[in-house]
Design brief:
single chain, 217 residues, alpha+beta, 10-stranded mixed sheet, 4 helices, globular
Length: 217
């Protein structure tokens, strides 16, 4: 008690000089980027307009954990950059994508969401035009690819997600809890072999995207 009382009678300069940052455990911070786009596919019938399909950008991890699994582009926040700066840097490094507008989606902080240690991740999302995009995997990303994304809300209780490119099909499932709040509203039923809790992050982004579409209509 005396130590607490003593702190009240010192200057802020003195307090900061003697402050011990090791007094509290410090989690690491990462970013994850959910990048959507809409591609047109010709139907083969000149009388019909091209089909518009939703796509999601994923990278294939080149390192443990979840080596070779597909994941959202992202990584650790450096000590000398903001969270937003980190999101744009990681996106550029892993996919070659830059100069786009992203908005913050949500912060995901379940205690065991990452098998390495206590890691909190802030997710960003964007819906971009597919023109003039030249993808290139680099740093710890083995490959980068657009996946066609189809999804189905089964009532208000479940969300099914299917992701596919020319070689891979990923099927994932989420349980929706309308009584929960924020991150706890969504639980992973089937990960679809996506890394970490990225199935949950994608589901959260889809719900945000759907709400935006409904709001503008």
């Amino acid at each position: 008690m005396k130590a607490k009382e003593d702190k009240k009678h010192i200057s802020e300069e003195e307090f900061l000089k003697n402050y011990d940052p090791s007094e509290f455990e410090r989690p690491s911070v990462t970013v994850d980027n959910v990048i959507f786009s809409i591609f047109e596919t010709k139907t083969g019938n000149y009388r019909k307009n091209p089909e518009q399909n939703l796509y999601l950008l994923l990278i294939q991890r080149g390192e443990h954990p979840f080596m070779n699994k597909w994941a959202l582009p992202g990584g650790f926040v450096r000590i000398d950059e903001s969270v937003e700066e980190s999101a744009y840097r990681e996106l550029k490094e892993e996919t070659n994508l830059e100069n786009i507008y992203m908005e913050q989606l949500y912060t995901f902080g379940e205690v065991k969401r990452d098998p390495r240690m206590r890691i909190i991740s802030t997710a960003y999302m964007a819906l971009i035009k597919p023109e003039n995009i030249e993808l290139k995997a680099d740093t710890d990303a083995r490959a980068v690819s657009w996946f066609k994304l189809t999804y189905e809300f089964q009532g208000s209780e479940k969300l099914k997600i299917r992701l596919e490119n020319e070689e891979t099909v990923l099927n994932a499932g989420l349980i929706l809890d309308n009584k929960g709040h924020g991150e706890s509203r969504i639980k992973i039923e089937e990960s679809g072999e996506l890394a970490f809790d990225h199935t949950k992050i994608i589901g959260y982004a889809l719900m945000r995207l759907r709400n935006k579409i409904e709001y503008t209509n």
